[in-house]
Amino acid sequence: MDFCRQQVKADCVELLSRLQTTESVRYQAFSQAWRDMRFSQVFYGTVNHKERRAFSRLILDTAYSFFLPPYSFQIRVGGLYLLYSLYHCQITSPPEQIHLALKDWEDVKKFEKDSMDAQHHDVVYILRQLLSRKAFSFTAMPTMLVFKKKRKVEGLKLCEEFMERPSRPQELINMELLEELSNIDELYGKLKTSVSAASEQPGSSISLIRRDLVPQLRSTVVDFYKWQQRKSRPDEDEDEDSGEGTSSQQECSKRAQRLASIKSKAYGEAAEASKSRRHRQVEVDFTSNVAGPPHSSSYTRTNKPSLKARTNENVHISGDLWEEATTATQIKCLTTLDFAPEGKPKTLKRFKW
Fold this sequence. Notes:
Strand content: under 5%
Order of helices and strands: HHHHEHHEHHHHHH
């Protein structure tokens, strides 16, 4: 369907241009332009079911691009009406859904809120009708990610005539206008001074001049331009003049210092052993960093001799006594054994596999 992408976009642009000339966001104005262009017949050129579904996917994606910023509110309303009409006029069964990316959901909710605040109830009704009929398919990406032969896929270019004019104050307030305003303000000040000096009493004054009019006007326009830049790029860091970045860095450094002090205190002191591990004696070296009196010996591990070594050291028995004690022990063990009565030995059954 790449061969008819430009034609589909041209038809959508023509329909939205007719809506733009009406200067209205009512569905009645859109439906009149829809009927004049006979836009519902756009699906009649397809042949088989596969081609119908592919064309429906293409035209819904094209109309969906006009429903999102940076287009003006009227064009976004026209994009919503176009999606609603195309969804109900498609001849595929089941109908192809409108792919709504999750990153665009916040823009859709803000668009609905703005429509409610402006009391455009037909816009809210159309949007909620699409949501109630499950016309939207919430996806992770706006387009389907598949392996294609083309490395670069041509995207839809933005239409400049449909976009808002956020730079209107910058276009009106230029250097020539500021210079002319400065000359007029200076001339007016001189006239006012001469008139007040000739007619008024000494000591009385009438403040009819706004001082620093041109610099204040220029600074206001510059501040508005900076605000637009921050709004269009919210993910970027703010200017250094605001000081918020410096304060956040200071807070992070203070937090890091607190964590470092807590860790140093925890690692510098020996924790008390729990009740289940108090029988284990731990050796702690306090003389490496801290000077002071030696600690109790309960925390030191001593190399004690084994039980056999201690027995050989404490008990001394001569050779004859050791042999007699060993023989008596063997006789005592033999008397404790129980011998089975003599009889016929038991026959064991052979295991069969």
